[in-house]
Input
Amino acid sequence: MGQYYLGIILGEKDLSKKEVIRLFVDPHDFNNGAKLTEHSYVNNCFVSTFEYQLTPEGMFYKSRVVWAGDYADNEKDDEHNLYHISNIDINENKRYVGKIKDTKEYRYIINHSKKEYVNKSNIFVHPLPILTAEGNGRGGGDYHSKNKDFVGKWARDVISVEKEKPEEYTELIYEFNENY
Output
């Protein structure tokens, strides 16, 4: 079967060391497929709307990000993973169902935890869902192609999306195959 994903913005862990979900975005709310490879392309309305939240104009600039799969491992000391926790604790304040946002002018996805960035210019496969995915390889529609070892490399790291490339950060050079 296919694995479904949600884009999730995390807060700091609370005193019990559990992850705090600040926001999640469901691809179905934007008429997109929920499998990783169904929505991981540049200029996709679901991914762009999520990405906008990480811009300086968005509500969650420089936040921790994970693309949570429903087959991912459970959270530590919990019987559920982030995908299921989002769906169990449906809190409309955490679910984004607002207007579609355009992020074409924001070329750089920046990982502040690892001091790396990706330039989205001249690529087709969107790096944000791929680099932050948890659970990849466990269901249909997951990414199984070129550079699959990059999948999830940025999961739960602090990410922003910017118009200018950062100084003193390393560009992450990769090529994801659009044939998945």
Q: What stands out?
A: Residues 29 and 134 are 21 Å apart (CA to CA). The chain has one domain: 5-171. The longest strand covers residues 63-69.
